User: Fold these one by one.
Assistant:
Number 1:
Amino acid sequence: MPSRPERKASLIVHDDRPYNAEPPLGRLRASYRTPAEDFYVRSHGDLPNLDSKTWRLTVVGRAGLTLTLSLDDLRTGFPMAALTATMQCAGNRRADMRAVAPVSGDPWEAGAIGTAEWTGIRLGDLLREAGIAEGVDRHVAFESHDTVDGRPYGVSIPLAKAMSPETLLAYAMNGEALLPEHGFPVRAVVLGYAGVRSPKWLRHIAVQDHPSDNPIQANDYKLYPADVTAETADPAKGYTIETMPVNAAICEPERGGVLIAGRNRVRGYAVCGDRAIARVDVSGNGGRSWRQADLEHEAGAPFAWTFWAADLDLPPGEHELTVRAWDTAGQTQPALPDDTWNHKGYLCTCWHRVRVSVTD
Ligand SMILES: Nc1nc2c(c(=O)[nH]1)N[C@H]1C(S)=C(S)[C@@H](COP(=O)(O)O)O[C@H]1N2
Ligand SMILES: [Mo]
């Protein structure tokens, strides 16, 4: 495994502190399971440096029942669970929205996404051990070791999602211990939801009858209408971002690339929170005509992205390549970033457009 500075040097770094970085898209498309060192890093505070030997997780379950667990307790006390799944930041592709009008936050390109095999235990198994049964109108609140504006990072998810088999507490990524920047020693992996609901560096879990009042949950990661500004935003009225919508990106060629006229292979990813991708359309002329991409589905990875590839015959000149995916509910993506623009720049799902020059 490359060292931390080496890993950082090979990513596109948006900020040093907090550390935020994404891989170049060509590298992202190179392997279905993203190597941990190529996986985007999104952090809100400083990266904690934790010792797995002294690390403990506290879980407040049924009234009066609190569990304190070591990493060994998790490994040996519960059945192991592994799932290949995609994690994606709600701010993925924000750069495209920023082109319409200013938005807050880092200008992520389409690399704030990655897919890994996550290994750990099912959160539901742990909650049952803590005396929790399925229930509506209840929430599972997490707290982490990193601090954001003087408070621990904290979010919550509905109890039903926490109890579902696709919600894990993971201690390994692609068969190896988590890297420090991805949440060592243990993080939640809430598949199909925006990355923000998958807290890293876990330290505390509580089942309660209201969502977390932590600012990350209560104020941030809300979807607002286009006419709401930073000044007028009322978090109580914003929609809490959970399940991710259908999205797709062209990874190769890259924006501004120079190609040779003739047949060119275009490759990328398509993804949808908790549904499968049914179809991917690719265009060599900005969406005036489309052709079908070949899809690479992975059996047994229902929460993971679909890789796609298509050959386009491109004459000399300037061209706009674009892609749109369809999910199994027949839903597709808006054409323009204007269609879903919001001042936080979340959930940018417009057709991904890549301008290239084609020479003889
Ligand atoms: N404790 C903690 N967990 C966190 C965050 C964080 O800053 N602190 N960032 C969240 C966000 S917004 C995303 S998109 C994912 C990113 O996970 P990664 O850095 O492993 O790719 O982690 C989530 N979990
Ligand atoms: Mo995120």
Note: The radius of gyration is 21 Å.
Number 2:
Amino acid sequence: MISSLSTISLLLSLCSAVISVDAFFQKLLLPGDVSGPRSIAFDSTGKGFYTGVYGGKILKYTPETGFVDFVYMTTLSKSSLCHGIVGPLLLGFCGRPAGIALNEKTGDLYVADAALGLHVVSPAGGLAVKIADSVDGKPIKNLDGLDVDPTTGVVYFTSLTSNSYPVNRDWPLEDVTGTLYKYDPSTKVVTIVMEGLFRSTGCAVSSNGSFVLVSQLAGHDIKRYWIKGPKAGSSEDFNILINSPESIRRIGSTEKFWVVSAMSYSYGVNQSAVVLDSNGRESRDLQGVSIWEENGDNLVSEVNESNGSLYIGTFTGNYVGIYKLCKP
Ligand SMILES: *[C@@H]1O[C@H](CO)[C@@H](O)[C@H](O)[C@H]1NC(C)=O
Ligand SMILES: *[C@@H]1O[C@H](CO)[C@@H](O)[C@H](O)[C@H]1NC(C)=O
Ligand SMILES: *[C@@H]1O[C@H](CO)[C@@H](O)[C@H](O)[C@H]1NC(C)=O
Ligand SMILES: *[C@@H]1O[C@H](CO)[C@@H](O)[C@H](O)[C@H]1NC(C)=O
């Protein structure tokens, strides 16, 4: 069922030409029948990363150890019942870590679990601790993107839609109930930041904490919500040119972001990943990646940059992809 990314062309302006990337691309295979490394968080020492997979686990990767179990979303996630579970089956029992990000100061790992709500994991790993699965008595559902404000530790996370739909039923187009939430660890309160979003997928906080971005997959835009400064509390369009934007990741301490987008066609999905600057424009030193996946069943969920490479997460694949970037 799971196919690999079939053709990938890497367009590197700094490399002066379109380059075949076979030589640059490496797959880190997940152990056993584990799949779906959807979101990636690098550890603060730069020696490894974490990724959440189907069945409710978060794995830790280092070059020395390979992938090892690091977090269980529930006590069942450890059991054979959840092992290798793919898709929505047992989601509510096993969990499904979607967006993950570290608070680099405390080492706490925050998890937006698609089915189980917002969780946190101590630097020692183990069982994730639930922070919230409702706000003011209303359940928070279908969590997706998550980021931590590097200046305050406040956690921002998105819900694709506040409705529930039967498994395998297409979500109605008119459902515009996505939400951007925030969790303040100092008050332990979750509040709503933006409502009425059209499939809010990714979110990312800028490196100085002045704004948070939220992508609307079906709204075909990225919004900027101001956290600080004269426009604090208001939002505006950040980029309206990227079709179906999904995840957004801040690149380290820069004011730049990797954005993954997807256009569906009846015969497949063409995806691309681009760098946006703090004005929402495609970066001039652009290293765009276009990804053409014939079968469309191994879509790229996320791209972030570390140590001169792109780390690529997928919704259902059995590996994390790594591209060596071409630098001058
Ligand atoms: C970072 O990149 C260098 C050069 O490609 C490589 O030798 C090193 O192992 C990488 N570090 C990690 C933690 O992956
Ligand atoms: C993206 O990668 C950079 C390292 O290059 C890291 O500092 C940053 O925290 C990552 N973003 C997220 C949301 O993990
Ligand atoms: C998808 O991308 C590939 C490679 O960049 C390109 O050859 C193909 O024409 C694109 N397909 C569509 C439908 O845009
Ligand atoms: C944060 O960075 C932005 C550039 O992205 C800059 O315009 C703004 O002045 C900075 N804000 C603060 C509070 O430093």
Note: The chain is about 0% helix and 50% strand.
Number 3:
Amino acid sequence: MSKVLETRLEIDLNALESNFRLLKSYLSPKTKIMGVVKASAYGTDSIITGKHLVKIGAQNLAVAYIEEGVKLRKAGIEVPILVFYPQLEEIQNLIDYQLTPSVYTHRFMEGLIQELSHHDIDSVGIHLKINTGLNRLGFELSELDSVLKHLNSEKKIKVAGVFSHLAASGSKDEIEFTKSQIAKFEEARSFFKNHLGYDFESHICNSSGILNYPEAEFDLVRAGIALYGYGNNPTEHKMLKAVASLKTVIAQLRTIQKGDSVGYERKFKAEKTTKIATLPLGYADGISRIFGNGKARVLVNGKKAPIIGNVCMDTLMVDVTGIDCEEGDEVEVFGKNNTVIDFDIEQQTIPYEIITRISQRVTRVLV
Ligand SMILES: *Cc1c(COP(=O)(O)O)cnc(C)c1O
């Protein structure tokens, strides 16, 4: 069997649908759901996932970069696509493929105006991004007057949306801060409602925002991680179903004796007779070295097996002592039966990072 078939990322669209319905149940029926499919739909497959999200009722999609949006358009997806971080270099594609830019600097707005002067189109819709406390990207509240002035100087740019992003919507310790972000956002929103003379969509909630602050749903919500089966705290994880399952098979089994070592730098030393299995995936496939040396567990025939020694580029070894298994047996690295929370024993990182890191070398399979 080829490597490609042995290690695969299975995508479960029923789980995606179940997560979508759960999020929907938190929202008023008129609120639109924007499916966030950046980074290959959180490591799955942006076309498969994006198409299915549209099919089950997502009215909008969002990506990080213009190139990601172009890929969706070429696959025939026609719903509005918001681009969170459009780069000036790619701006012609933004226009040609009718993608909607998030706009958070005057510099980008100027670039957009320049580009539009070369195109025979009436107007382009943008979503203005407001910084309400994440301090990553967005216009400040103190800049709203100058933004309005810039907009009024250019008839070809229309505000289709105004939005902001929450810094800690999944954190119980930051409820006051989150509420202050929502209040600042409402201020910006009112400003544009009062001064633009036409209506637009407002949005601030990400996945945890939907689950914890449904009162701030506004016209639209941006659902990412929850669609893929994870949240930002244990309560949220429990309600959701993992969409991606990373599977492989045992490439080789061996029994080592007390004092024998495993892997590079001999980081694992057996204290007793130990049965080990070598799996054909490694850090080049997206399983970081931080998961070596007992920091993560995979599932072998229903039993948890810790990764031992250092993770190699194309392989890793697990301790299967006491587990009934043979070469060729299937292993769930993480997924439906071994969530990334179970896999990442010490929670060294977050589900977002684990699932988006699985490299393109790993074949995606629909189940
Ligand atoms: C990635 C992203 C989201 C989705 O966030 P989740 O926590 O995955 O739901 C929403 N909005 C913006 C601006 C993002 O960058």
Note: The chain has two domains: 31-228, 244-366.
